[in-house]
Structures are given as structure tokens and as C-alpha cells.
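Supplementary Methods, section 5.1.

A reviewer requested that the exact input to the structure prediction be made available. We therefore reproduce it here, unchanged from the version used in the analyses.
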Amino acid sequence: MVFFQENLLFYFVVEYFMQTNMTDDPFESLTEVSIQILLTLFLIAFILRLNKTLYTYIQVTTSILVCANVVSLFVIPVLIWLTVTEDLLSYYTLGLLFIWEFTVLAYIYRKALSINLAASLALTVLYFTVTYLGAFAIGQVLV
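The structure derived from this sequence is encoded cell-by-cell as follows.
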């Protein structure tokens, strides 16, 4: 449980840093990251509840957060590089990091839910859509 909490805090700090870098508005960034975290936690719980494996919530959520945190450690320098130089290679690198995170999340869903590859890819698309686009949409309405 402590590892989960530490990863959640790290996830919040890193996402807040990246969001503030993109928007330059600390309050808007705080709102969007808070919504994003809530959507992430609720979506994982909802998916596990449908699969009748809610008892694995802490393990699955922790593994998803660890995945996002590890990828974020690579994304931050790339974002700084992109902001400073706007080099085309930095955009390609960012895209590869997104594909890496997408692939690892699909693997986590596939193993945690005992589903096939197509279903895990669909759940990963749903995850990104709900958490990132949903947080952005709700944040735009609130702020």
C-alpha cells in the first residue's frame, strides 16, 4: 500500500510538472491532473469490477502507475529537448515513448484481466481516451 501511495504521489508531481510546462497555468494544471488521476483510479476500478477481479486493484493500479512513472522519467528530458530546440528527432522520440507506454499498458491489462491482445489494446485506447482526453474536456468546462 505504501508503494502504491508513493507511486501515486510521484505520478501526480510528474504529471503536474508536464502539464504546467504545456499550459503555463498552475491552477488549470492542478485541476486537470487531479481529474486525470481520479479518472485513472475510477476507470481501473470499473474495469476490474466488470472482470470480477477488483481484489487485484492495488496491484494493477500500482503496476500501471509504475509504468507511467518509468516512461515519464524518459519523457521529461525529451520534453525539455523539444521545448528548447523543436528538433524533429525529439518529436519522433516522444512518439516512440508513447508507443512504449501504450504497449506496456496493453500487456498489463492482458495479464491482469486474462484477455486477448485485441481486447487489451482496446482497453488501452479506452484508458488513454478517458484519462487524458476526459481530463482535458472536464478541465476545460471547469476552468
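The two ends are 33 Å apart (CA to CA). These observations are discussed further in the main text.
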